[in-house]
């Protein structure tokens, strides 16, 4: 872990100065959450990489060996361990990993992906600052999302472990079902404030004390 | 609102898509040979069909892929969805040759 320490030290306090797109909503999120019913929190600074490559090509196979596979169809999520690969299009994928996978914190995900692509056709782009993650969980999480999403979110149709690019509250997002009652919503950074407040508004009726 | 079946993602709301105008508008074989009027007609003149109309759509908030759609402009019924570069269902091979693939006009 010597390298990790060195990389962190060379950061010059950048990590400490970094502010997530919905950091100012943390208090609002906490006040709006009711444990087990509807909870929301931001998971900031995940490492993300946008990949464009033909899945069937040699470069695609090399990238798949680093990322733990490339998903084949809409909704599918591939990956190994901490690294997940979401399907965005027939030749477009989003790799999502924990924050410490970024090279500024001593990780090697992006260099490994870039090396795997080599001189093959495609691209690997660091998109870590592109989107933030809202984790919405609780028994009423699906009801909250259904207020602004026209997809069929019933478990018989939207299975745990799948992710879809769609719209919530008129905002383009990626919706990733992580557990039976746990969803991750990934809006672009500039939409985080609006969508965060929109979700809190949607949660209000469930997270309020019942009126007799 | 239309419910459009994206060839990659399945049925989605119309708001997830963007419209790309008339399909099968062939790029002129030799643009330099056209006079101003012919060039303007290529750029700006489109059919205003009553009934079945072939048009281009892109699933902009989903898979970001283009496709063609045959839609009735009166009833809004979606009659067919087919890939870029292929002729509209019901057109002959002769007509197909007269139409450049979609990629050529991008």
Automatic annotation (TrEMBL), chain A:
| InterPro entries hit by this protein | SoxG (IPR007375), TrmE/GcvT-like (IPR027266)
Superkingdom is Bacteria
Q: What is this protein called?
A: Sarcosine oxidase subunit gamma
Q: Which organism is it from?
A: Arthrobacter cupressi
Automatic annotation (TrEMBL), chain B:
Provide the residue span(s) of the region labelled Disordered: 85-106
One GO-annotated biological process of the protein: tetrahydrofolate metabolic process
UniProt GO MF annotations: sarcosine oxidase activity
Task: Give the compositionally biased regions (Polar residues).
Answer: 89-99
UniProt superkingdom: Bacteria
Kindly give the Pfam families that the UniProt entry links to this protein.
SoxD (PF04267)
**Coiled-coil annotation: which residues?**
none
Identification of the protein by name: Sarcosine oxidase subunit delta
Say which species the protein is native to: Arthrobacter cupressi
